[in-house]
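If you are new to this repository, start here. Below is one unmodified record pulled from the training split, so you can see the exact layout before writing a loader.
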Amino acid sequence: MVTSSSLQTVRVASCQNNGIAVVTIPSTVEISSVVDTITSIGSNAFKNCTGLTTVYIPATVASIASNAFYGCSELTSINVSSADTYYCTVNGVLFNKSQTTLVEFPQGISGTYTIPSSTTTISMVAFQDCSKLTSVTIPSSVTSIGTFAFYGCSGLTAIHVNNTNPSTITLGNDAFYVSSTCKLYVPSGSKSLYAAAAQWKNFSNIIEE
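And here is the target side for that same chain:
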């Protein structure tokens, strides 16, 4: 593990396929007798670290790039120190401290997932390439879903949305780039609204429940 020239952004060198399963990011780093605090995890910091399963993030980190864990196909747990004032972890999933924004869903988690009702925002690329995810439930509290939020979720067969009015949810570009067989489940009486709404109408199978 190395850092950028700013000495405050985490970088990882030659992590691809090297067998590293667990990484603990230090709170400080010393280079040439200079000690500095790690405050951010940069873009593509862990890109394609395919053997990585668990990451531990110190309390000093205040910023994590949206694609920091891109291509980490076996990552199942992102753990943030409870003392961190910007981020937290809920069952291995990365949120902001107040748990209103879902920042990163580890690509290695499989099966079904229900987004907590405290969530109002799903960040851009939050679920990108989570091919092992089969079903997700989006609570009525969510009002914003970022660009490419569910891009490449090839194993996703069902998305359950609890909001009765899709117009109250702001969508980024290609928020749902999923398999054509993925079913969209919506509240009773709201099918016509979703069938007419941008992006939502791209689902070929919309079912009321």
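Two things worth knowing about this chain: The mean pLDDT is 91. The helical segments are 191-196.
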